[in-house]
Amino acid sequence: MNPKATWISVVAVLVAVSSVRAAEDHWPQFRGPAALGTADNADLPDTWSATENVAWKHDIPGRGWSSPIVWGNRVFVTTVTNDEDLKDKDRKRGLYLGGNRNEPPKNVHEWRVQCLDLDDGKLLWEQVAHKGVPPESSHLKNSYASETPVTDGERVYVYFGNLGVFCYSLDGKPLWSRTLGAFRTAAGWGTGGSPTLHRDRLYVLNDNEDQSFLLALDTKTGADVWRTERPEKSSWSTPYVWENGKRTEIVVSGSGAVRSYDLDGKPLWELGDMSGNAIPTPMAGPNLLYVSSGYFMGNKKPIMAVRPGASGDITLGANETSNDFVAWCQRKAAPYNPSILLYKGLIYSVTDLGLTSCFDAQSGATIYEKKRLPNAKAVTASPWAYNGHVFCLSEYGETFVIKAGPDFEVVRTNSLADDDMCLATPAIVGDKLLVRSDRRLYAIQNLKK
To answer: pTM here?
Structure first.
């Protein structure tokens, strides 16, 4: 045997193992590494309650629907407080009309960043990024801290819509900040799309009613690298960096169309016939990109799979389900708020009303569709998966545990406290699941190992 070849093989294995361990140690952005919402650790819990398998819980002041992120032993969360107790004010679960606020509140708010110890939940540091009166309104069900922060292990980047970006060291030292302007959103619903990192650039999407744009910032200084104006109006999706076999591109779901840009902000392709009020985030598997949008009051709810290398307008015709660059389309399958999930070759879609569908990721063939989660009244958080199960968290703090695979089976339901309202998508790191409600952050762990 060639010793050099053997050495190279050993190094490759060690690098692969190291990469897996590194991924398990961090959850750096919305939906984690590669924005897939999946993990692989046999010790992760599948059973819990408000007291069972709770390693710790941390009360969070104010209101925020951002997800927690984790780097090593540090957990980062954002929230906004004011001199009113928001916990029970205008508190209402589920999809409903109304809730619009024509004017922003007049009292002073504080936009906060907290860092917790992953082992025990103790507060390590807190920074007030901004203090003042909100410049724009938000839906009563939204928050002023709905954007999930992101970290590269050197800095934490916090984006508060209609305020700007605030950058900190992992120890809480302010490094730089950028104001990006305040803009009207549809019906005054506020903002929600999270920033995305790729190498030395931070990408911020701001789709609004005044001047929508995709912005690339230098991670070290916060300076503009480029800014691309967008034709879309308000949306609440998070940009996705798609590294495929042909190139790296930035994919953005907007209201009406998905658009892709190169790393200089130049348009590559567009895919129309999507729904309005885009919220779900794109994601990719080994050879396909998956996009979805499903505004609950519209008649367009597509999930589509896109091949690499597209250019120009790749919108499907009225009677088409595929073309040169759209591998397949399910026109009535997408959720409104949750993002779809790719796990072990299957796509899972969980609607806001708890209807669950499953499709083959390569062909788009229906495995099962519109299976109802028992008594699920409202689902906003995106589903996640590990250890052969798919997990769906309702606004009522109930997590429905579904057996992954071609047969729909709800294995169990895990319930938090009656006063927990859950819209944030959880984080997974090591053997812990971090679930945020409007009142507290839970660290859930198998404590009876």
So the answer is: 0.93
